[in-house]
């Protein structure tokens, strides 16, 4: 009996050694904007843990915005509170890199070999690079689109099947929608929160934020003047009130606004909020300069923060999975963001037939050739710079300053926040 017991004991030890170890590595993951990303993150992490039972994903408290997200990470950097992985706005990767907080993914990319086989082309990889350094992998990418209430457009004499293609046409039709009365407004342009939608107007006019060596502000040039003049005309001619971001979204979803301009990433929430109250349509956002105009690439990238070697290996697996074809196949239909993984976009297994069946989602991808990086200001004052621009845009919208006054004031303040050369 003792001999048999020893055999069973030895077999048990051998079996235990042969079985995979579960939950050996726990990764703490931080992400922004739970209204957009909570369900997406839950779905991706669940699938990842099913395929990688030796890695456990736990989430830190999410941040409401990209700005809050970067400030949280910078406060936690080097402490026990810092997560192992974070998702950071594309325009804030520069801040992480300048402070050497993020892990350089270059060696991991090189070791991986052919990233294009996983759907990561050089173009996609560059979205999350800073001065050639691979700071992250682009996770969710977006561009600004036009949402419109087809019922109000028709009531105002427009053609819902042929939406406005210029800002002049948008503003004229917005004014007609406002004139319908009954508490209806013409336009909601999401200028609040950050500089992204200002970039849509500025880049759409062929402008840029700073000069080539980043020593001086360039957004107050002729292109910037055209951009803020369009914003003022939305108010004076197009029937745009002084909305907060939530109020504007709620008013549009309630059928009280004709046009809404914001990220394609809000599409799924907008579809849910509109329901059957009216016929929702989407289209390209107009460019002030249709030839030279571009659009800012919004969204975020997955960034590895942990310096622990074992955790880095696990974190790299998660980063590739989240930003890879499966992750993209969850992000796009779950939010409205455009696909940032070429394998996901082309493969029938993922999103190959999605856009044919879901025409509301087509506006974002149709603008991808116009997308350029979301500009990241140099130095430590990036968040302050953004807020300064927003504060001055608010003066245009509430008509307490002329467009040129607000633009020049913003330029003067921002120039004082730039690093000395």
Automatic annotation (TrEMBL):
Compartments in which it is found: Periplasm
The UniProt family comment states: Belongs to the bacterial solute-binding protein 1 family.
Q: Which Gene3D superfamilies match?
A: Periplasmic binding protein-like II
Protein name, UniProt field = ABC transporter substrate-binding protein
CDD domains from the UniProt entry: PBP2_UgpB
Got a GO cellular component term for this one?
Answer: periplasmic space
Q: Does the keyword Ribonucleoprotein apply?
A: no
Where mainly found? periplasm
User: Domain of life of the organism in this record?
Assistant: Bacteria
Identify the keywords attached in UniProt to this record, alphabetized: Periplasm
């Amino acid at each position: 009996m003792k001999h048999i017991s020893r055999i069973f004991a030895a077999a048990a030890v051998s079996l235990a050694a042969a079985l995979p170890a579960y939950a050996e590595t726990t990764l703490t993951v931080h992400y922004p904007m739970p209204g957009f990303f909570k369900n997406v993150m839950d779905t991706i992490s669940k699938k990842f843990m099913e395929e990688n039972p030796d890695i456990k994903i736990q989430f830190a408290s999410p941040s409401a915005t990209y700005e809050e997200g970067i400030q949280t990470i910078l406060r936690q950097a080097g402490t026990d509170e810092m997560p192992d992985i974070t998702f950071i706005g594309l325009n804030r990767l520069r801040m992480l890199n300048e402070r050497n907080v993020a892990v350089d993914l270059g060696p991991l990319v090189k070791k991986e070999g052919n990233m294009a086989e996983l759907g990561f082309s050089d173009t996609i990889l560059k979205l999350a690079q800073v001065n050639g350094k691979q700071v992250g992998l682009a996770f969710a990418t977006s561009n600004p689109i036009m949402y419109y209430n087809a019922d109000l457009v028709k009531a105002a004499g427009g053609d819902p099947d042929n939406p406005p293609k210029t800002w002049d046409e948008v503003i004229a039709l917005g004014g007609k929608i406002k004139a319908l009365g009954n508490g209806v407004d013409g336009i909601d342009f999401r200028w609040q929160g950050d500089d992204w939608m200002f970039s849509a107007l500025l880049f759409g006019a062929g402008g840029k934020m700073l000069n080539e060596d980043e020593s001086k502000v360039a957004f107050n040039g002729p292109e910037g003047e055209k951009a803020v003049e369009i914003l003022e005309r939305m108010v004076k001619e197009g029937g745009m009130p002084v909305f907060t971001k939530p109020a504007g979204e709620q008013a549009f979803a309630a059928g009280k606004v004709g046009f809404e301009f914001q990220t394609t990433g809000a599409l799924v929430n907008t579809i849910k909020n509109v329901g059957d109250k009216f016929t929702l349509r989407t289209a390209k956002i107009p460019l002030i300069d249709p030839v030279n105009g571009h659009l800012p690439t919004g969204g975020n990238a997955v960034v590895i923060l942990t310096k622990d070697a074992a955790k880095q290996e696990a974190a790299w697996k998660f980063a590739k999975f989240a930003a890879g074809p499966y992750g993209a196949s969850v992000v796009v239909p779950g939010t409205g963001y455009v696909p940032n993984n070429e394998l996901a976009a082309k493969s029938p297994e993922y999103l190959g037939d999605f856009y044919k069946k879901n025409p509301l989602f087509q506006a974002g991808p149709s603008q991808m050739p116009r997308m350029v990086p979301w500009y990241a200001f140099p130095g430590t004052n990036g968040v302050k710079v953004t807020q300064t621009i927003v504060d001055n845009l608010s003066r245009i919208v509430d008509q307490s300053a002329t467009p040129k006054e607000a633009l020049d004031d913003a330029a003067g303040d921002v120039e004082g926040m730039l690093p000395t050369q």
